[in-house]
Known about the structure:
Blueprint: H1 2-10, E1 71-72, E2 88-89, H2 97-104, E3 152-153, E4 162-163, E5 166-167, E6 189-191, E7 197-199, E8 206-208
Amino acid sequence: MKKLIASLAGLGASLFFMPLVLAAPGDGLAGTKHDFSGIGNPQTGACTFCHTPHKAQSQALLWNHALTTNTFSWTDTVTTAGTAFPTFVGDSYKGPTVKCLSCHDGSVAIGDIGWWNGGDPGTLLNVTIPNGENAFSIGFGGDMTGNHPVAMPFPYQNAPSTYNGSTTGSGITLVDWKADPRDFNIVLYNDDGAGNISRGAVPGQTGIECGSCHDPHNGPKVTGPWFLYVNLGGATGADGYICEKCHNKSGS
């Protein structure tokens, strides 16, 4: 089976490389759906589709994968608390969410990487989403309708924040939010006001990204499916339930 996959990939066939044995949550990158090692001829390594040590597209993360050019937005303009839903452009926004969407919005081939084995490989895997979305597609065509907000302010320490040009709405009930969801393994980010996004919470300028709940490398804090730091079931943040890690509805 591995020989067949490698042969088809070397010919530029349109398929997703799937490891034969999937890693368990928290066991690392090898054997996950993000492990693309063994593709092409010569074969790529596990990291190549996202990172390269030379001639990267950006110094940050030594990013190697083409960025989507979609403009992402939600149908709603504000939340019930009055927080404006953001709009952001895939190849200019500096938050980590656009790196996730470059593969998951269906607009860029999975193998559209910038540098491999001393040259530009073109497309190692000519994988796009034909005629619409699939199960792994988020924000298809830039439409984020029905998806949890990202690139969005979070009321860290139960105080308003401004992030990606959006400020916490005046109608928010601050006690309905965990003061610091990092206590439950959620990752927070901060915006310096000039569009530079960094990992870590800063009072008044904290927000959330795809990486707040997902670890694409399947690190040791991952406990659930889909690279999640969270559990899909449960009742409280303490037992890992995804909603209660940020939203304070059960009181625990």
